[in-house]
Design brief:
single chain, UDP-N-acetylmuramoyl-L-alanine:D-glutamate ligase, Protein-Tyrosine Phosphatase, Chain A, eight-stranded mixed sheet, six-stranded mixed sheet, 15 helices
Length: about 425
Amino acid sequence: MTENFPSQSSSLDDWLCYLESVHPANIAMGLERVAAVANALELLDTPSKIILIAGTNGKGTTARCLEALLLAQGFTVGTYASPHLLRYNERVRINGAELDDHYHIDAFTSLEQGRGDTPLTYFEYGTLGALAIFKRHQVDFVLLEVGLGGRYDATNIVTPYASVITTIDLDHKEYLGDTRELVGYEKAGIFRANTPAIIGDLNIPKTVTEYGQQIHAEMTLSGTDFIFNEYEDYFTWQHQGCNWSFPKPAIPCQNAATALTVLQVLTLLPDEVTVRDCLANLVVEGRFQQLSANPKVYTDVAHNPESARYLANKLRVYKEQGFKIHALLAMLADKDKFSVVTEVNHVIDQWSFASLSTERGEQAENLAKALTTINANHPFTNYGSVAQALDVILPTQDEKTLVIIFGSFITVAEAINYWKK
């Protein structure tokens, strides 16, 4: 056991700094270590029904939708999400609310005392800490977002009541593979025999359905078993006799449709009026979040090709209304910057690139190189940071320009902090 670890009287920040230093790697795939600690502390012995949610994009919005719909029916709900934007406390919610620091400190103290010599990564500590908190609160349902892939992710030590895959696209290729078939196979690892498995992806790889059939998962497939259609102002959803129509929510309609299907499969779907009210009031931070009306400024966590395509479609609506689009992009170095820029470039009038000062942060000059490879004549400016860029950009914007700040959770956090200051 590592010496000089924090105590229950230490601050949460002290604990988080310690957790980052305990394991030599940020990511360590495999379930043996984390399962051993969970079993030693009896964290998996819980009456809560766990819904395990994997996907390249859409996990957070699908979980938020499920959370709202379950809470509206009087259930108690624990939700685990990552990464956070501004505060670690965002990662664990009980009935939609963040918890005070001492809940996390208590959980980490218990883990540190119970893990023995077993090393844990930051994410594994967080996952086990969340499970400890949910067991303490004895919630009816736990919504557990998978961190990376599925098969070997720390969250996959649980026995799910249902498993969900939102979307499948290329990200974390060094861990999951460089084709959708390989990525899909890894995500399908959260399926269990004779257990509901709902897949919301619009073009499901064969590896997902073949694995589900092989282990006899009870699969419900988008486009086959449930259907949604998206229109300018509303979307429709059809499944098992339901043919409902709702105004477009603040989250992707695809994820709302997937959440509705999950609840109907589990015979937990509320009435149509309740669904309509929940969808109308959904707000998810960092997902095309408006920071300012004048000038018009939005921020988004889009950081891979699929999420960039979705963002481009959102921006196209404003483009068609006559707005010029000014993009401020800051990314992590291990992300596919070329594909992200390619997906949105056709709706962008002016680019600005900013460096991120974190260890994994990409330099603005490298983002600019991605743009010049696509279109050597497209105007751009480089900045040392998001804040530096906004200091220059915002005073020059007119009422017919929309500024979109995107590229990572860190980028969005820096934008939100800039506004708060």
